Every structure is written in C-alpha cells, then in structure tokens.
Amino acid sequence: MAREFTEVSPNASAGEKLGNWFGNRFPWVGEQLKYHVTEYYAPKNFNFWYFFGSLALLVLVIQIVTGIFLVMHYKPDANLAFASVEYIMRDVPWGWLVRYMHSTGASAFFVVVYLHMFKSLLYGSYRKPRELVWIFGCTIFLTLMAEAFMGYLLPWGQMSYWGAQVIVNLFSAIPFIGPDLALLIRGDYVVSDATLNRFFSFHVIAVPLVLLGLVVAHLLALHDVGSNNPDGVEIKGPNAPKDANGNPVDGIPFHPYYTVHDLLGVGVFLMAFSAVIFFAPELGGYFLEFNNFIPADPLKTPPHIAPVWYFTPYYSMLRAITTEMMYVLVLCVVGAAAFAFMKSRISGIAKGAVAVAAAVGIALMLSIDAKFWGVVVMGGAVIILFFLPWLDHSPVKSIRYRPDWHKWMYGAFVINFLVLGYLGVQPPSPIGERVSQVGTLFYFGFFLLMPWWSRLGEPKPVPERITFAAH
Fold first, then answer.
1. C-alpha count within 13 angstroms, C-beta hemisphere, residue 126
2. Angstrom distance (rounded) from CA 302 to CA 164
3. Cα gap 372→146, rounded to integer Å
4. Are 203 and 81 in contact (CB under 8 A)?
5. For 345, left (φ over 0), alpha (ψ -120 to 50), or beta?
6. Tell me: the pLDDT tens digits for 401-419?
7. Residues 29-75: pLDDT tens digits?
8. Cα–Cα distance between 172 and 186 in angstroms, integer?
9. pLDDT tens-digit profile of 3-34?
10. How far apart (Å, rounded) are the C-alpha atoms in residues 379 and 392?
11. Do the beta carbons of residue 171 and residue 182 sit within 8 Å?
12. Band of the pLDDT at 347, cuts 50, 70, 90?
C-alpha cells in the first residue's frame, strides 16, 4: 500500500516545508533521527566523562576531511613522498594548517579514545547488557591503531621509516610464518616503495571503511541497549520507573539536551586543539618527532627509534620481555597452576588439564625466543581488553559504589600506564627495563586477577534510581 504524504500548514516556514518534502520522499531518515536522536532517551546524570564519545566522532570527521585534502597533493612514491609533504607545508595555500590538523588530530583521537575507554572502566559500561558495545569499541581501538601505524609511515621521514622497519620486523619473530608474513606486509625485503604504496592504500581506503562500519555498529549496539550512566543504574529495565508515555522517568531526549550539552565539550576541545595546532604542533617532539623532519635514509639509522607516543606503553611492554623476564613469567605460570590445584572445586580431570597446559606453556616459553613473546605480550595487552566484561566480577558497576580502595587500584593502573608510555619514548636503560618489567606485570595482573580482587570489600548501597542534581 502506498504511503500517504503528510501536509504542513501553508504558513509554515521554508525550513519546515523543505523538511516535510524530504520526509515524504525519504521517511527512513526521519525515522532513524527520531530513534537515535530526538526520541532516544539517555540518563539525565551524564557528567564531563561523557563528552569523549562525541569528541571521538568529531575527531574522526576532522581526520577524514583533512585526509581528503592531503591526498590531493600527496605522492605515494618513495622518491617523492617527503618532498610532497614539504610542498603541502610550504606551497599549498593553507596546506600547513591542514597537515597540522591531521597530525594533531591523530594524537587527539587517541587522547579522547583513551579517556572514553577509561570512563567505561570507571562506570562499568562494559558490563551486561553492553558487552557487544564494548567489543565493538575495542575493535575500533584496534583498527585505529592499524590506521595510525600505516599513516605514520606516509611522511617518509627518518622516524616514520625506521619505526615502520622495526615494527614490521617484529612479525618475523613469529615461528614458521614470521619471515613470510613480514615479507607480505612490506612487499619487499626492506621497507621500500612497495611498502609505502601498500600502507597508503590501506590508510586511505580499506581501514577507514572498516573503521566507519565499526563506528556505526558501535552506535547501533549502544542505542539498542541504552547508555550507561555514572551510577550504573539501568533506566530502561522492566523495573525502571516510566511516565505515562512509557519513557524513562530518569531519562531525557538526547536532542536537544545532550546535543547542546556536548557543545560545551566541543568548544573546550577545539580551543585546546587550536592551541596545539597554532603554538606547538610538534608538542615537544611527542606529536611530531624531530627526526621525522629529515628525509628517510635507509643507510642512516637514528640513534634511538621509538614509535609515536600513543603506541609507547605497548612498545615498553615489548622491550620488557627479555630472557630474564621469561623466567619470571614461567614462575607466574607455575604459581597460577599451583593456585588452580589448590582450589577444591576443580575436578581431577580439570587439574590434569591444567598441569598439561602449564607444562606445554613452560616448554614453549623456554624454547622460543623472548622476542616472539614480546610480540605476544604487546598484542595481548590490547586483546585482553576484549575480555573485560567477563573478568570483572564486582557486584556493582560504578566506581561510585565500589569500596574506596578500588579507586586507588584504578589510579595505580593509570599511573602505571603513563609510566610505561614515558619509558617507551626513552632510550633503553637498565633501570627503565626493570621498571617496565614491573609495570608490565602490574598491567596484566590488574586484568588477570580482576575476578578475585573485584569481589573483595563491601560495596556501598546502590540507589534504585539515578542520583541527579540540576546545574
């Protein structure tokens, strides 16, 4: 049956008439806007931590738009790439601004994503029923790392060239398939023009398409189950209070309330973003390394090679895995197996399986080079985030109602992550190696022991409805 057209008053404004005309011909857009924006009820107690989701979307748009303009002048050729970047910076009208927006945007993307993920950690936004939302978010983070790594090579400066050389060579440590895998990624025996073209095509076309699809899936999954809030109290559950129209009493329409609310976060972010672009685009060598202003020279290795700052915590974990560290990890495996044996609830068959798995794991750890296990640890530091919904056994979601010492635990985790990031930028040193080894053990211990420590202590009473004070 044909859909009937709606009419508006002859005295309606031109905007209302245009919206009605478009809605009659493409009603799906209007329905989706209602479902995801105007009629999407979000908890009314969002705080500043909830700015970072919308800011991540803003930075994604900035990166796509500036990337389009950069591609107009960039040459994906090993002999021309560096010169084309200099051409953009010096001769293209406002090219320097577009390039600095893109380079600063890459770091800003990770800043807001890290803060967005930490908000989820604080308020338990990964807990039931939002496990899939969290998994999509972690996949976005992993895809973003791939996108940033491939884009890092494109300026064809000394640090981007040698950084890519080091990271790609790590894949050669994988037993059996490693050398062939590294050759496949590079397209040559060394980082060369073939590598540049591969990374360019992935950075500009393939990975952004995957990233956009994941962002859409993340938002759709979020809006299906509803947003979490600082109290961790569900506003759309069967027992949640609702008004006469069936809308949550503790919720408000996302538009116009949170669209206006997010403008505050956007304004503050753009001021900080602009300050970096106009006054410190390199940010002391953290956002743009000084060696990257030197053309790539395959015959001259920089004194110290380190990835850009947002990779350095994981790079620090990679460097922490030495032959000595492997013995410590073996002891950890033995301790975990012994703990499993001491648990009376585990059957004899399960204990046997644990013993066999521990024996095989120890044999592999002692027989395979530590460099490979460094790669495993670096990748595992990201992959373990996917399992967070099933590692956290706390009876409450939000940090507000957990025992006070949990706040110290989260604070120690953040400090440890920052220290690992700082050590990843610095040249290797004996003290730095020891600190990074301890930091790596703490990072994994935080997650692997979470089923135990998250249940300790007496949680505070959780209110039946969200707490909210108008401001």
1. 23
2. 13
3. 20
4. no
5. alpha
6. 999 999 999 999 999 999 9
7. 777 777 777 778 889 989 999 999 999 999 999 999 999 999 999 99
8. 11
9. 667 777 788 888 778 878 877 777 777 777 77
10. 21
11. yes
12. low
Distance CA 449, CA 379 (A): 19
Q: How far, in Å, CA of 330 to CA of 361, rounded? A: 8
In the DSSP assignment, the letter for residue 313 is: H
pLDDT for 314: 95
Q: Is 240 helix (H, G, I), strand (E, B) or coil?
A: coil
CA–chain centroid gap for 450, Å, is 21
| Cα gap 205→196, rounded to integer Å | 14
For residues 138 and 125, give the distance between their C-alpha atoms in angstroms, rounded to a whole number: 13
* The CA-based dihedral angle spanning residues 352, 357, 360, 365, taken in that order and rounded to the nearest 10 degrees: -140
Rounded to an integer, what distance in angstroms lies between the CA atom of residue 220 and that of residue 238? 21
Structure tokens at 45: 């107690």
Instruction: Round to whole Å and give the CA distance between 345 and 311.
Output: 41
Distance CA 210, CA 167 (A): 22
Spatial contact of 131 and 389, defined as CB atoms under 8 Å apart: yes
DSSP 174: S
Q: pTM score > 0.85 for this model?
A: yes
For the segment 288-304, the average pLDDT, to the nearest whole number, is: 90
Name the amino acid, one letter, at 333: V
**Residue whose pair of structure tokens reads 């900080």 in the numeric block:** 272
Selection from 250, 248, 232 nearest residue 127 by Cα: 232
Sign of CA dihedral 162, 163, 164, 167: positive
Q: Are 270 and 98 in contact (CB under 8 A)?
A: no
